[in-house]
Amino acid sequence: MDHSRLSHRPGGLTIITRIYQPPAPLGLLHCRTAVPMLLLLSVLAVCLMQRLILMVVFYDRLLPPADSQIFWAFLIGMRFDVVVAGMCVAPLLPVVSLAPPRLVASRMFQFAVAGYVGLVLALTGFLLIADALFYQEFSERLNDKVVHYLPTAGNEYILDVIWQRYPVVAVLVGMLALGIAGGWLTWRVGFNKRFFAGPVWHAIVWPTLLAAFVVLGIRGTLSSHAINTGPAYFSQSMSLNQLALNGIFTLRQAVIGNWFKRVEPGRMYPTVPTGDVDRAVRELVFTEHDQPVANAFNPLHRVTHSGRARRDLNVVLVVLESLHWANIGHLGGREDLTPNLDALAADGVYAEHAYAVGGRTQRGFAGIFSSFPDLPRASVTTREAVAGRFLTLPGILKARGYHTLFLYGGPAHRDHRQTYLGSNGVDRFVTDDDLPVRTFRTKLGWNDRDLFDSTVQVLGELPDDRPFFASLLTLTFHAPYTFPGSDRLPEDLSVEQRELAAVRFTDESIGRFMDAARREPWFDRTVFVFVADHAGGPLENPKGPGIYRIPMVIYGPGIDGLEPRRITGVRSQMDIAPTILGLLGGDYEHCFFGRDMLADSDVDHFAYVVTVSGELLFYSRAYRVTVTQTDGGG
């Protein structure tokens, strides 16, 4: 619209000046909606950009799918992006919509709004970068792993690993710059004076419509339940399904589920009468060698007759950090990574289809040491209630007169191991700087070669008046995957190749350990057990139930019952303790969920897994698995 203005100058000259005024802006650019709309579109744009980058960089992980599937991944991903964008706008929209006009026009109010926008953009950018790095490592969006690892006592090393592996300072500086730039642009553009023009109804209708869109966007659906991760699982490619998700959305789900909505398992899963459960579990775990013990509180309480005379053999139980079946040659994985472990399997007993109890070391310990399937949410091994009152393999062997030890290159208290093991049968901890051999320390602790060399020395110094049970936990095959000589690896090696180099180092350390052990006087009366705590590393892709398949090897040349053989059928970490006790002979009283896998090596047992995301997996045959999910589709 043009307006005319008259002005007079001395001498009677009249000047007519035509002044241009811009038309009223589009309704959504009214001052009440301009800033929320700009923030909404900005968050959607950066989320879309991140997904595009992930698709290009990690396309080889997508199996590769048809173009239509990639299109659907982006289309579905928009639903989750809108949820995140709506969450960012929701606190701002009512403030801007309901503030009095004089307040909206004030510089202080505009600075505050601009500051909020800058903070949201910086935090969003930071989380999306963290999510991209997480996807690079696990082919997953930010999830329960973040919640479970960071707050746990003893996991402070993770911050050191992050600092070492990633450009933390550059990311923080970049996000600070993004926040400042976003705030400045909001202040300069979002409160342009022409946005105050227009009819009054613009200030009412457009904010109302935008608010309705934001509310619907946050819910992500018109159904009675808000959206969850279900719609993302539309493809056979788990990496593609994860691409469809939004890392900020999945992190929010993990935080809410673990910190604000803790519920008892009975409210999470379908339940059946207690008596039916007791009978079903007894059918799964009891054998003809078991004699039930009357116990109203524990239906699994029983005495097992091993059928073999008691013999107090030494036991060395090695828990291998993160080794996945695809790393192991004798399980059909890569043949060049673990020649030493493969040789032990060839000369001993190995389970072809063994599964971990869960996706973390603490869950693996529940299965290995207590023959327990673990509980949803927090692992039983981390709960204070287990202190001094939980059955373990070292507890049974301690009662038989064994020396019981735990050796580890990191601190004993990590993941509550000192509480769980120390109060339930382990007498001596040789950990961290107590290791007698210390040559190279990673962010987690002393490397595997130091651990095994220390073990030979410590066991050689034990009194020979009674047998020993020594449990070890390796750590080299864990981020940051550093070990002696890793700094001399070619700089152009991929992350995956560096991780596989760590597998080779662990295997070489096993070979060195066994060579040294064969020269020790205790070797001929020792049972060696090698089992992974859980699966990990780059070869866990593609995702699926098979990810929990792990190596399980028992070696003892010349020991009756350990003649070389392959055990078919499903086995679990829960079978380790009863199998060891079966080898040692005699009777033992217990309430284990596992069974002696040497007693019926050709019969399928079962495996039970608690996944990181809360799913329950039940394996009844090598290629049959039942999955129970905590959430439905959205």
What topology does this entry show?
Layout: E1 2-9, E2 13-20, H1 34-57, H2 67-89, H3 92-98, H4 101-105, H5 107-138, H6 144-149, H7 157-165, H8 168-190, H9 202-219, H10 238-244, H11 247-260, H12 265-268, H13 274-285, E3 290-292, E4 302-305, E5 314-320, H14 339-346, E6 349-355, H15 361-370, H16 393-399, E7 403-408, H17 417-422, E8 428-431, H18 448-460, E9 468-473, H19 495-517, E10 526-532, E11 549-550, E12 552-555, E13 565-572, H20 576-584, E14 587-590, E15 607-610, E16 616-621, E17 624-628
Parallel strand pairs: 5-9, 5-10, 6-13, 7-8, 7-9
Antiparallel strand pairs: 1-2, 3-4, 4-14, 6-11, 6-12, 10-12, 15-16, 16-17
Question: What would your notes on this structure say?
Answer:
There is one protein chain. By secondary structure, the chain is α/β, with parallel strands linked by helices. It has 20 helices and 17 strands. Strands 5, 6, 7, 8, 9, 10, 11, 12 and 13 form a nine-stranded mixed sheet that branches. It has a three-stranded antiparallel sheet with strand order 3-4-14, with no helix packed on it. A hairpin with a 3-residue loop joins strand 1 and strand 2. Helix 1 runs parallel beside helix 5, helix 2 packs across helix 9 and helix 18 runs parallel beside helix 19. The longest helix has 32 residues. It is elongated.
